[in-house]
Structure formats: structure tokens, C-alpha cells
Amino acid sequence: MKMSPKYNPYENMLSVVSNAADILGYVPSDYEAIKYPERELKVAVPVRMDDGSVRVFEGFRVQHSTSRGPAKGGIRYHQNVDLDEVKALAAWMTFKCAVVNIPYGGGKGGIICDPTKLSESELRSLTRRFTAMIAPIIGPDQDIPAPDVGTNANVMGWIMDTYSMLKGHCVPGVVTGKPIALGGALGRNEATGRGVMITTLNILKAHAFSPENSTVAIQGMGNVGSVSAKLLYEQGLKVAAVSDVSGALYDPDGLDIPSILEYLSQKRGNLLEGYDAGNAKWITNAELLELPVDVLIPAALENQINASNADKIQAKIIVEAANGPTTIDADKILDKRGIVIVPDILSNAGGVVVSYFEWVQNIQSISWSEEHVNEQLKDIMDQAFQSVWDIAKDKDVSLRTGAYLIAVKRVVDAKNMRGIWP
Ligand SMILES: NC(=O)C1=CN([C@@H]2O[C@H](COP(=O)(O)OP(=O)(O)OC[C@H]3O[C@@H](n4cnc5c(N)ncnc54)[C@H](O)[C@@H]3O)[C@@H](O)[C@H]2O)C=CC1
Ligand SMILES: O=C(O)CCC(=O)C(=O)O
């Protein structure tokens, strides 16, 4: 994925936060502290590769804020990971947890690597060594990792095992998104996509669109994109386009999502390439973003909708499933054009909400049914959507600004109530 040279996700995040702080009437010293991550750890992780050589991978864990609770957020394995990206992702977690009002701060981690080019044993060694190196700053009361791009339940299982071995006892609450057999929550694997589905239905309803008459295009068919596609298809939306790093499929009459998901589940590497497209046609990811659909769901990486394509977007609504898919320049262009954006910190919060349920179950040694998890998730997502919608209408601002008005206030209030010590 090509990043525009000037794009800095951390600066993007800061300018959104400053805008919200201005509207809230804060003076700089009220929110100066939340402009900086509390802690940044950079590690060099040596791995014995299958061919006997040693490679050293660079990794990061950033804790943006612990004012409202332990840091919380995923770990990304991707070749384009860098410190500014991890810092931005950590800060977005702080504001995401605040907007849905769960008792966490924000953190994020990453390793610069292409996990599709590593064998399972290399991935396991990399994960175990990385965990050992970040172990001093993580823990169920300190900082709780989870899956993100390029990581999954298996990786979380290795983190849980390595941390537990270091402590000398089983610590399931150190990480969420684990395999169910290791204390993972039922419903966590689908939770982010389920939250995206709930949010999409909420925004369609708010604009009096019926799901059955709405079309959607989804960029990214990993954990978040594929579950969003499945659940939206089941809700009657016409999923006209989906994509991944290997290309995009488009059929204005709607794709056969169950058949695509079946193909992905059988294919090693989970890529769309090679799928028998039938009536659908292959297009590029750039073309997918500009399709004439009702809803566009970017579910891949940051900086996909930027100043170079914002004036070509034809969707009426964008539901941000990825973190940071829209730059601030694009935001302004889209806003002027009347395109509604449901911001990432609201629409993709389902994952961390169910991670919170997983952690709550782990520390109490109890287990909830999937039905209970999904009901509680829906309640939280609906309430958060309504609060963001109401404040945005009340203040006549975008949904992104509305979400940040709620989140920044909660984080600043907590920070200031705790005070600066000594
Ligand atoms: N996994 C989770 O629970 C959560 C993930 N997110 C965010 O959702 C986004 C996707 O994450 P996951 O689905 O977990 O990752 P994943 O690793 O499961 O899937 C990523 C998908 O994006 C595709 N992709 C990568 N580069 C692309 C490109 N240039 N064009 C089109 N597709 C491309 C990949 O082929 C893959 O289908 C990320 O922004 C992540 O931070 C947000 C909240 C929670
Ligand atoms: O489940 C979690 O703790 C965090 C998921 C995540 O990384 C995100 O929401 O971006």
C-alpha cells in the first residue's frame, strides 16, 4: 500500500484532538499531556530462521495513556509498521475506549515484518521473543495486547503462554483475542466486524436508508472486512465490491459473499486471487474506493482516502472499519461534499469492547455465552452511536468531531482529576 510521503498519522490524530479541545474551550495546558504517549518501547528481536541464519526484527509497544485504566490495543505485524504509526494507533485506542466508555487507556504494538513470508515456527519464535522483551511493561493491570493486522488468535495464544511461563503461573488476562480453549471470549473473533455491521445499520437508519436497498463496497477482506461482509450480506445489503491486497471484485448486482468466504477459508494465505469471478469483474483497490455505492467501508490500512482521491469518492456514507483510513485533508473535502463519515474510533470499537468482556471473564474466571456477549456488544455500540450522533447534531459538527468531543473530555477529565504528581 503506497503511503503519501507527507502523511504522518500521529500529526493527523493530534490535529483532530486539538480541534475537539478548542471546541470544548480548553486552554493548551488542559490537554498538553495527552498530546504525548506516556511510554514508547523499541526492541530489537533476534530470530533463528528456518535456514539457520539469524534475523533481527524491529518491534514497538507504545502506551499512549493509562489515565482511564490499563493501556489496551492490538499488535500489528506488517512490513510498513513504524513508530509514528504505532503512536497514532495507540492514541486512537485511548479515544476509542473513551468513546465507548470502557475502563481502559490506549496502547498499540507492532513488528516490522511481512508475516506472509515467515514460516509458522519463525512467527512463533518472533512472537515469543518479542513478548519476553515487552513483558516488563505488559500485564492484565498494565497493558493488554490483542490482534490487529497480520496477527490472530494463535499469536495471542503464544503471547499468553510466553508471559505465563515468565511469571510462573497462568495469566490469561494479559492478552485478549486468544483461542477459546485458552480463555478467549466467544464472539471476539467476529466482534469488530459485528460492531461495523451494527454501526452501518445505525447510520443507514439515521439517514432513512433501508438495508435491502443499500449497496456497499468493502476494502480489505481480513478479519474485520470479511466478517463485516458476511454480516452485512446477512442483513440484506448488496455487497457490490470486496478486495484485498491481491485485487478487488465488483458486481453492481451484488457479489456471492458466502461463496467468496468459502473460497478464502479454503485457501492458504486467504487471498481473493484465483477466485472464479463469474459475472463479477476484477478491478483495482483504487477503483473500489471510487465506486458509486451507498456505503464505503475501508477495512485495510491508514491513508486510503486522502487529498488525491477524496473528490472522486461517490459513496454517500463512509463507515471507517480500519484505523485512520481517511486523512484530515480528505475529511475536509468529503465534509464539504456532504459525504457522511462514521469515524474509526466509533465504528471499529466492537473488537475492543469484546476484548474488555474477555478480560473481565478472565480476571473473574467466569465465562459468558456468545449470545450474552453479542447482546452486550450491541447495547454498547448503539449507545455510543446515539451519543455521538446527538452531540454532533447539537454542536453542528461532523460525527468525527462529535466522537472526539466525547472522548477527549473523558480522557482530559480523568487525567486532570488524577492530577500531575508529585
Ligand atoms: N482485528 C481487529 O480486531 C481490529 C482491527 N482494526 C483495524 O481494521 C483494519 C484491518 O484489520 P484486520 O482485518 O484485523 O487485519 P487482517 O490482517 O486480518 O486483514 C487485513 C486485510 O487488508 C488487506 N489489505 C492490505 N493491504 C491492502 C491494500 N493495499 N488494499 C486492499 N486491501 C489490503 C489484506 O489483504 C487483508 O485482507 C486495520 O486498520 C486494523 O487496525 C480495528 C479494530 C479492531
Ligand atoms: O481488542 C483490542 O484490545 C484492540 C483491538 C485494536 O487493536 C483496535 O481496536 O484497533
Automatic annotation (TrEMBL):
Domain of life: Bacteria
Residues under site feature: Important for catalysis: D148
Pfam families: ELFV_dehydrog, ELFV_dehydrog_N
GO molecular function terms listed in the Swiss-Prot or TrEMBL record: glutamate dehydrogenase (NAD+) activity; nucleotide binding
PROSITE patterns cross-referenced by the UniProt entry: GLFV_DEHYDROGENASE (PS00074)
Database matches in Gene3D superfamilies: Leucine Dehydrogenase, chain A, domain 1 (3.40.50.10860), NAD(P)-binding Rossmann-like Domain (3.40.50.720)
Name of this chain's protein: Glutamate dehydrogenase
Family note: Belongs to the Glu/Leu/Phe/Val dehydrogenases family.
Residues at which substrate binds: K72, K96, S355
Residue span(s) of domain Glutamate/phenylalanine/leucine/valine/L-tryptophan dehydrogenase C-terminal: 185-419
Active site per the UniProt annotation: K108 (proton donor)
GO BP, one annotated term: L-glutamate catabolic process
Organism name: Faecalicatena orotica
Coiled-coil regions listed: none
Entry keyword set: NAD, Nucleotide-binding, Oxidoreductase
Protein residues bound to NAD(+): T192, N223
CDD domains attached to this UniProt entry: NAD_bind_1_Glu_DH
